[in-house]
Amino acid sequence: MRRHAVVGHLRRVIGRLLPVTSIPNASAPRSGAGARLVNLVVDPVAAFRGIANDPSWKLAFLAAVGIRFGSLFIFYRPAVTPIKVLGGLLFQVLTVVPTVLVSSLIVWFAARARRINVPWATVFSILTHVYVAFTLATVAFASVAGALLTESADVDLRNPPFTNLTSLVGGTDSELVPTLAGEMDVRSAYVLVLLWLGLRGAAPDAPRSAIARALLTIAVVRVVGVTVVSLLR
Q: What residues does each domain of the chain span?
């Protein structure tokens, strides 16, 4: 009995020292949909706080489509007609939906394989917000590249300069090497950090080693996937 009393006292002390986000219950503080989007930039830890209790994704999805659609007009300045606007919006929706769905499936399976109990709805919400952050980072890098490079330089909005190692292996004859160099991208590291925060926020009791192994699995699946696609071209 005495030993159980000591253990109980230690649990109470640790519970007071740990932040409230480590307690996965309904009383955990939640971020509203708008605040969560803002916190993606200013406070990523807070962005995923309580996401398991409120896995909203609709506003983030609209933000992703809006950012992608708006950036095309800002960078490429196409002629604007009602049909082009509707077609452009539809194209963005058809681009974002499968990307987020497939990414969510990979993360969900990787988490389940490492016994990290995160519901599908929560994983989908995490990936939708991560996609928004990735899109913002891409636009930011493209904007910096456009400001630093000459006007004649062509800035690829999907893979802007200064983000990966592709430029260092431009002289090789192999198509696989530039593809793998392109995966060494600062945005990929940013995505892994956000996924870590998202899974930690959704499953605070999960061991950190399990989350790290899940992220490693995700990275391996990504590299294997792009390698296979590159070899099949």
A: 31-232
